Structures
1.
Amino acid sequence: MSDQVASLQPIAWHEPRSTYDVVIIGGGGHGLATAYYLATRHGITNVAVVEADYIASGNTGRNTTIIRANYAIPEAIRFYKRSLELYQGLEAETGADIHYRPKGHVWIAHSEMGMRTERGRVLMNRAMGVDTELLSPEDVKRLVPQIDLSGGGRYPVFGASHHVPAATARHDRVAWAFASGATGRGVHLIQHRPATGLLREGARVVGVETAQGPIRAGIVLSAVGGWVSQVAGMAGVRLPVRTHPLHAFVTNDFEQGLEKIVASTELACYVSQTERGQMLIGAEFDSQPSFTRVSSFDALRSYAYKITSLLPFLKQMRILRTWAGLCDISADFSPIMGDTGVDGFLITTGWGTWGFKAIPAAGEALAERIATGRTPELIAPFGLDRFRRDHVLADQGSAGTR
Ligand SMILES: Cc1cc2nc3c(=O)[nH]c(=O)nc-3n(C[C@H](O)[C@H](O)[C@H](O)COP(=O)(O)OP(=O)(O)OC[C@H]3O[C@@H](n4cnc5c(N)ncnc54)[C@H](O)[C@@H]3O)c2cc1C
């Protein structure tokens, strides 16, 4: 972070109007970033973001803050690489301190099959200009001295891939940076205002219904995280998306310091250290679709067992807090962005357990789609029509959760 970067700028609040060029439903990272890039890249400021609760109250304020581009298919690597680049410049661009911290992501394999996957990832990443290298077990020990290479005798470390530029950033600050950047240019942010329906004129969506009255719009973008099936349903759009809870927890402070983000492919669990020194731990989403955000003891027990097999020091730590978010998991584990087949109604969804890292690139690309009417090449493969065309983007292994 440069010396010029101040702390967060205030959010400018405005009286809502009855009509906007663009209404974005959902004040999470994706909705706010789209509003920000509409204002900054295209000068479109007659925009409202309607948020049911407060900004970043959904998954944007609940995630484990990992930013990386080490995906396995070219479309995804290109897209997340762009997002990483935008994140790297976000403090300088917005003047907000988002606590961006490059750390490196060590993705451990526990079998020959796992190593084959990581070798493939390294080759594909490097071919596309993403800095990922292969590690032997000795290299892993050098970068993560606390690791038990025998994996508790059950999950031996065969090696890993190391994605050097992977980083973390404070999630609430990212949301706030986009919100203040957008509202400072005239975008309206309306909190505690759920969209309860969509206004239709014939087949076209022309605005949103709220308890306080309708708001008309030239374009409506749904950016509602785990609630997407309901909102898309208001437009008669059925999505290949299911909502599953995902849990995380933090421990008390670990004095030694764990420099890297450590993840396991086959165990689907991961850990990083927060700036306060706490260990932040996550794993796979609940297999049962649900809308509960109540933490579960089952998830906690399973995450704790897996991660302590790799990092035994964690057994000495105390769990301080657990929480859960609602993840919009798409059928192919890749996002869905852009047109829905209903005029005037766009979506950004399928962000599942992996959408925090995508916030800047998705916001930038969707703003371009809204401003120009053309879908940018970067997100063209991620359209909803891919399921009809049988061009799915299967990349489950890169989600890091399953
Ligand atoms: C525990 C956990 C850990 C994660 N870890 C990572 C990680 O390390 N890295 C990563 O890249 N991703 C991670 N993710 C995923 C990431 O958090 C999400 O993909 C991302 O935040 C989605 O952002 P969003 O803006 O689409 O949705 P959200 O942040 O959920 O925002 C949607 C907003 O829409 C609002 N809303 C819903 N319905 C309506 C309505 N009808 N009217 C108005 N507003 C409405 C909600 O209140 C909410 O504020 C994690 C998720 C969880 C739960």
2.
Amino acid sequence: MKTWPPAALAFALAAGAVPAAAEMRPDPEIAAAAKAVSPADLGATIHALVGFGTRHTLSDTTSPTRGIGAARRWTAGRFDALSKACGGCLVIDRPRQTVTGARITTPAVIEDVLAIQPGVGDPNRVVIISGHIDSRVTDVMNATSDAPGANDDGSGVAAVLEAARVLSQRKFPATIVYAVLSGEEQGLYGGKVLADYAKAKGWRVEAVLNNDIIGNAHGQDGKVEDQAVRVFSEGTRPGETDKDIAARRRTGGELDAPSRNLARYLADTADAYLGGFKVRMIYRADRFGRGGDQAPMQEAGYPAVRLTEADENYDRQHQDLRTEHGIAYGDVESGVDLPYLARVTALNVAALAGLASAPPPPTDVKIAGAVTPDTTLSWTPAPGAVAYKVWWRETTAPRWEHAETTTAATLTLKGVNIDDYFFGVSSVGPRGLESPVEFPGAAGAF
Ligand SMILES: [Zn+2]
């Protein structure tokens, strides 16, 4: 029979050595994984990707040296090599769809390259890291000019491969999927291919960390922002029924879609493992008027966020390689800051390891307590959880502030008025690792 807190933790609590309940406690194995991220390996991946000249979605697919086909085969080869190094721990798959659209005028094959590391406990529960391999220049239809895409999104692909290298050396209860997507610049097609693939497999996708433009710390405004990354998340989920919307308008939840609580989880992860490197949560699904591969995953009902560097340089994105009036345009390797990219990658590694090691959030979270001085939460237990934390925060606070722990499937917070706070529940596993917080009702359900 499991007890909570474990003896060692109870002693530490008594000694005052453990952070307050609201802080994520670092786990030594996860800290070691985050530390294993190599700036040199990230740089080698970007160098190899740039070497394919262009990776435009409509570029050459048969050349062994140039175009998106060669780049995808190289990526699959890297996954193969990593799998050999871990005793065949990765399943490599290349789902594809033939599509047409506004930016694909004749039918083209969109192919993603996936490496799947099946979980040893609950393989149907899945956490995903993604980046897109395709690149572009000024004219989105130009499939032949050199389009190095070092940062957009060579940086994201490098993070995916580096996460695979580090985490494939370890075992996790949940499945981790390393996803290299195509067709982003032509209309987010690779994200849709991935969403359809996840649905067909019947995965319970708990988190998607989409990395797009994560490698540059020198903003166009001249600032250096090398100690923060932006995490974009939606506040409400798609597919709400009229009844769900009415309930959310009445009692709240517009700040607590699972994607938003995944963003909070990333912010906690940075605080616990990244030594001063911060997540800047942006309460918006993506940058203003722009899109990314997290969107099709969100549309499919999966919690998903977008990571993007803190301060972008637009002279280096979607540009023909050229110099004009002394300004060098183009997405070249020298525009990537490898130590910065390594920090963002380490955040991904720590978050994936934490999510895949912890139990899933509880399901069917309910809340009651109107016209009483207390608030009661209840839920359906999560497989593998040994305890739960009930969280609350001021309605205007961005992060969860207070928590109480229980081993039961319900908890009454005495003297905490339901009117005055937002509430949620996380699951805690035997190592003390926690799931993201789940807000009650349809608005917050993972
Ligand atoms: Zn991009």
